[in-house]
Amino acid sequence: MADTIALSLSEVHQLALRVLTHHGLSGTHAEAIARVIVAGERDECHSHGVFRLLMCTRSLQDGKVSCHAEPKVTDRSAAIVVVDAQFGFSQLAFEIGSQHLALKARRTGIAALVINNCFHFSALWPEVESLAEQGLAALAMTPSHAWVAPAGGSRPVFGTNPMAFAWPRPGGHPYVFDFATSAVARGEIDLYRRSGRAIPPGWGIDATGAPSTDAATVLQHGAMLTFGGHKGSALSTMIELLAGPLIGDLTSMESKALDGDAGGTPCHGELILAFDPTFFSQGDARADQARAEQLFQAITDQGARLPSQRRFEARARSLAQGVRIPRALRDDVLALLR
Ligand code: NDP
Ligand code: PYC
User: Which listed residue (47, 70, 154, 293) is catalytic?
Assistant: First the structure.
C-alpha cells in the first residue's frame, strides 16, 4: 500500500473546512484558515499545511479559541490600523486588516497593521506575498511560544519567531522569504518526530543543555536553538519586542505561560509593515525597480536560487497535479471527524 495518497487542492480545501467546522469554527474563520492550509500544502510547506489541522483542532478542543470572534478594526492613526482578533485565529483578522493596511500604505507611503489577541499558527509568506501582489513591499513578524534558548543559554525564552519579507516584481512572482529565527520551525521537528527520524545537529539541546538529535527530547524536555547563533538570537529578541511590548501584546514566554502544558496554539500579536515604493523613490521608481531586478539577476546568474523559488515551482506542480500527503496524516485528520 502506498504510504502517500493523492488529493486535489479542492479536496484539501473541503477536508480542512469539514474538520474545522466539525470542531465548531464559524464558516468565515474556517474558510480563511482553509485557504492558508491549502496554500501551505500546495507550495509543499508541509509543516504548515494539512498537518496544522492537528494542532488547530487541539486548540479548538481546549476551548480557548473563540470560534465566532469578529475581528474589531481601529483606525489608530494615518499610518497605523489595529485589528483586535478577539481571541480568534489570526487569518480572518489579517484578511480584514490587510485591506486597510494597503489603503493606508498607498496614502502615506508606509503603514503598519497591528493584530492583537490572536491564536497564530500559520506561515507568514501568504500574508506578505498578498501585499506584494498589490505592488507593496512588506515585512511581517510574530512571536510564538517560548521554545527556543538564547545563544549561550539553555532555557527557552524565545518563540520560533518567524519573519517574512516580500518585494513586488513586475510580471512575475514577488521576491519572498519567510523563516523562523530558530534553526528551523518547530513544526518541522515535529514532522521528524512523527516519522521517527533523528533531527540534524544544531537544531536543539536536551534538558541539560547538551546537543541532542532526538526530536522528542528537544520538543518535550530541552530547547530549540536559534539560527546563526547570536545573530538569530538578536533578531528573535527584536521580534519579541516589536510584535510584543511595542504593540501591547504578549511575548513568547507570556504566551507559553498562558497555555500552561496544554500544547495549544500560541496566542499573542503580529506586526505587519507595508511600504509603497512610489513614495520612497527619488523620482524614477521604474529605474529603481530595474536596479532591484539587477540585484536578483546577480544572484541567480551564478546558480544561486532566490528564496521561494522552490515554493513557486511546487505551486506550479500542485496546481497541475494536486498534492500527495502521508497516508498516516490523512488517517489522523479523518479521525478528527469522529
Ligand atoms: P525554511 O528554513 O524551510 O525556509 C526559509 C526560507 O528560506 C524560505 O523562504 C525558503 O524558500 C528559503 N530557502 C531555503 N533554502 C534556500 C536556499 N538554498 N536558497 C535560497 N533560499 C532558501 O523555513 P523555517 O523552517 O525557518 O520556517 C518554515 C515556515 O514556518 C515559515 O513559513 C514560517 O512562517 C513558519 N513559522 C510560523 C510560525 C508562527 O508562529 N506562525 C513560527 C515559526 C515558523 P523556499 O520556500 O522556496 O524553500
Ligand atoms: O512551526 O514553529 C512553528 C510554529 C509555531 C507556531 C506556528 N508554527
Answer: 47
Q: Are 288 and 17 in contact (CB under 8 A)?
A: no
Helix 52-62 and helix 27-42, axial crossing angle in degrees, nearest 10 = 160
97 by DSSP, 3-state: which?
A: helix
13 is catalytic: no
Q: Ligand 2 center to residue 318 CA distance, Å?
A: 23
Catalytic residue among 129, 188, 240, 254: 188
Rounded to 5 degrees, what are φ and ψ at 283? Answer: 130, -20
Please list the helix, strand and coil fractions of the chain in percent, rounded to the nearest 5, in that order.
45, 20, 35
Neighbours of 304 (CB within 10 A): 9
- Ligand 2 centroid to residue 306 C-alpha, Å: 23
For residue 75, pLDDT beyond 70: yes
Q: Is the dihedral of CA 38, 40, 46, 48 positive or negative?
A: negative
Q: Where do the domains of the chain lie?
A: 4-182+226-282+309-335
pLDDT in tens, 259-279: 998 889 999 999 999 999 999
Residue whose cell numbers read 496554539:
265
Neighbours of 137 (CB within 10 A): 22
The whole-number pLDDT of residue 282 equals 87
Task: Give, using CA atoms, the residue closest to atom 13 of ligand 1.
Answer: 307
CA–CA dist 37, 25 (Å, integer) = 15
Considering only CA atoms, which residue is closest to atom 7 of ligand 2?
A: 121
Supply the CATH classification number for the domain 4-182+226-282+309-335: 3.30.1370.60
> What is the four-CA torsion angle of 71, 76, 80, 85, rounded to 10 degrees?
-20
Measure the CA dihedral 171/166/147/310, to 10°. 20
Q: Is 188 a catalytic residue?
A: yes
